[in-house]
Amino acid sequence: MSAGQIEQIAERVERLLVRYEELQRTNALLSQQVDALTQERDSLKSRLSAARSRVDALLERLPDIKSAA
């Protein structure tokens, strides 16, 4: 193997290491976004459930249509 080939391999390895580090940072950011969106989804599901409960409670308080007629 010539010195030129070793140099090319070394440069390629260096580029791959840089790309690997970039991908690690991107992955960390995406993981943070997934965590944030998961928390937001859970919060919205909780709010939806509470709203449904309030609507159900209001519907229970409405007079029955049959008995009103």
TrEMBL record:
It comes from Ramlibacter lithotrophicus. This is Cell division protein ZapB. Gene3D superfamilies: 1.20.5.340. One of its GO terms (biological process) is FtsZ-dependent cytokinesis. GO terms for cellular component: cytoplasm. It comes from the Bacteria. Residues 6-61 form a coiled coil. Keywords: Cell cycle, Cell division, Coiled coil.
